């Protein structure tokens, strides 16, 4: 699990120890993600399955893609498909994914890179492994997150951000036991490169066996920790968590704590966690397939606009979105 690493973690900016007056958040729930398949058949874990949307707000959906070792000819992606009303965030840990969309955005991302697509008023896109990876096979692992847009931005102009791993902010826990990669938002006074319509914080942390990290957390944000690999504990109450589980913290408090078990399994060197939170939008959510709107009528309109070709064209034609 390479993502973004550093030769000497002790050269990075340190996250300060929490103030004596800091209030730790407790853990509200821990759930296990069921397995499924997406797109042309690549395996995923549905990270948010069974969790009330009110606890996830402003997030809508998250899949852990893989971790899977493909044989030659096996790598899969998604066909062209539409979106409206939210943002998709694709973070690659291992392997390569290529993106194209009807707004002219596109690029290739590998370990530690992120594609951030604002669907807004409507867009068509496709995500596929490059041909050389299809031929060779290899390890494939990543995360796709859906971030809701508030009503005022539902029909914003689509945009695409290509965030290479070299742009993320890298931080260390006070003792050097945890590497924190800030992809978007702000953590401990350091901002990630992702530009968001909805105020959020998004990071990937690697925590060495036996180490722990306490992150200062915006009191206006919810707080979620998803375990990508390994095993450990969350909260001051040390609630056990393992690969494929999501911990939802309560809303009261301004720090969250994550600790790695002293020993990990043979396939995992460290505890790997995706840590995210955001300011709840608190608006009605009407969701069906690839559309996330405020009302059922708006979702039906999105389907009608897609069928009428009003969400874009292939190849990109910017004037096609009205």
From TrEMBL:
InterPro entries: Pirin, Pirin_C_dom, Pirin_N_dom, RmlC-like_jellyroll, RmlC_Cupin_sf
Residues covered by the Pirin C-terminal domain: 205-311
SUPFAM superfamilies found in the cross-reference section: RmlC-like cupins
Keyword Metal-binding: yes
Entry's cofactor comment: Binds 1 Fe cation per subunit.
Pfam families: Pirin, Pirin_C
UniProt key word Metal-binding: yes
Highest taxon in the source lineage: Bacteria
Cofactor entry: Fe cation
Assigned keywords, A-Z: Iron, Metal-binding
Alphabetized GO MF terms: metal ion binding
Annotated residues for binding of Fe cation: 81, 83, 125, 127
Domain Pirin N-terminal residues, every copy: 42-147
Record-stated family: Belongs to the pirin family.
Identification of the protein by name: Pirin family protein
Species: Antrihabitans cavernicola
Upper classification of the organism: Bacteria, Bacillati, Actinomycetota, Actinomycetes, Mycobacteriales
